[in-house]
Design goal:
single chain, mainly beta, 10-stranded mixed beta sheet, 32% strand
């Protein structure tokens, strides 16, 4: 879709929200030079495979509103909003901030669609929420989740970085917390040398159905969100290898799968999945086999592995 609508004179593009973008990788200069364009509804855009939005809205000088309920996290995004002097979303346009970090409705130039904030859904932690999710699946809602992620405070009053496993049924934007280093996000890459080795991920949005560890360095992170969609898919998974090198190349010997659950699991279900879950141990946070973890609450992540023999593993978190 590179330069598809570049330099057109229209004030609006009817039906733009219905475009199927699920296989699109390039949106460079897609709307560049559309100087009469005033509003865009891009709420239906699937950006999962897009890698290039360079200059996407460059010199859209009359553009005031871009509707999207999700943040976009795309590596090639220089000058994405350059010259969009009249654009306003969650914040007013700033000529010094024109790359893809502003492509979100929370702290950027996107505007949350009105339809996405009509329904409030309350999720209670450590309870079965399956029926509740089925009621609202594929709907735009406001999430009020009783769980929050908080850094532990030591006896000296200082924060201690504290890990939490997370797998949510909706996207959660953490750009502000990540940019301020309040937290960092990791995925499990390998189990080697008696350790679970986690690698930091560069994305600032926790994708729905994807398992993560969120390391909270200070304060508290809320898991509530406005204007998000409850996804229809089951939680996803990724392969875990016997070495970080194999994980980086995406091939080699695997030990299991890094997974998430939307359901509340009792100890028998955890054992059936050969689950290793995060539990506190001697003021540290280690990973224990199912026989030691007991139940796994909903919206957590875990390793499913029948091939590793230790019952307890230390965790190592690497930035790269």
């Amino acid at each position: 879709m590179k330069s598809w609508f570049e330099d057109i004179n229209a004030e609006t593009i009817e039906g733009i929200e219905n475009l199927n973008t699920s296989e699109v990788t390039e949106m460079e200069y897609m709307f560049a030079g559309c100087s009469n364009l005033k509003t865009l509804n891009l709420d239906g855009f699937d950006m999962s495979k897009v890698t290039n939005v360079l200059g996407m809205f460059r010199q859209c000088t009359s553009l005031t509103t871009i509707y999207s309920s999700q943040g976009w996290d795309i590596s090639r995004s220089a000058s994405m909003f350059s010259g969009c002097d009249n654009l306003k979303g969650a914040v007013d346009f700033d000529a010094g901030k024109t790359n893809g970090s502003m492509a979100n409705p929370y702290s950027g130039y996107f505007t949350m669609p009105e339809h996405s904030t009509e329904v409030n859904v309350y999720i209670k932690d450590a309870q079965a929420n399956t029926d509740l999710l089925k009621q609202y699946v594929d709907q735009w809602v406001n999430i009020r989740y009783s769980r929050s992620l908080q850094a532990k405070v030591g006896s000296d009053g200082d924060y201690t970085p504290t890990p939490y496993t997370v797998c949510l049924p909706y996207d959660l934007n953490l750009s502000a917390a990540i940019s301020s280093k309040q937290c960092a996000v990791y995925t499990l890459a390998a189990v080697t040398g008696g350790e679970f080795v986690f690698k930091k991920v560069s994305k600032t949005t926790l994708a729905a159905g994807t398992p993560y560890v969120v390391m909270v360095n200070s304060g508290k992170i809320s898991l509530s969100a406005k204007g998000v969609k409850i996804v229809t898919a089951e939680p996803g998974s990724s392969k875990v290898y016997t070495s970080v090198a194999d994980w980086q190349k995406g091939s080699g010997t695997t030990v299991g799968n890094w997974m998430g659950t939307f359901d509340q699991w009792d100890s028998d279900e955890a054992v059936a999945w050969d689950a290793f879950a995060l539990k506190p141990s001697n003021n540290m946070w280690d990973y224990f086999s199912a026989t030691g973890t007991g139940s796994i609450p909903a919206f957590r992540a875990f390793l499913s592995s029948s091939s590793i023999e230790q019952k307890e593993y230390k965790a190592r978190y690497e930035d790269w």
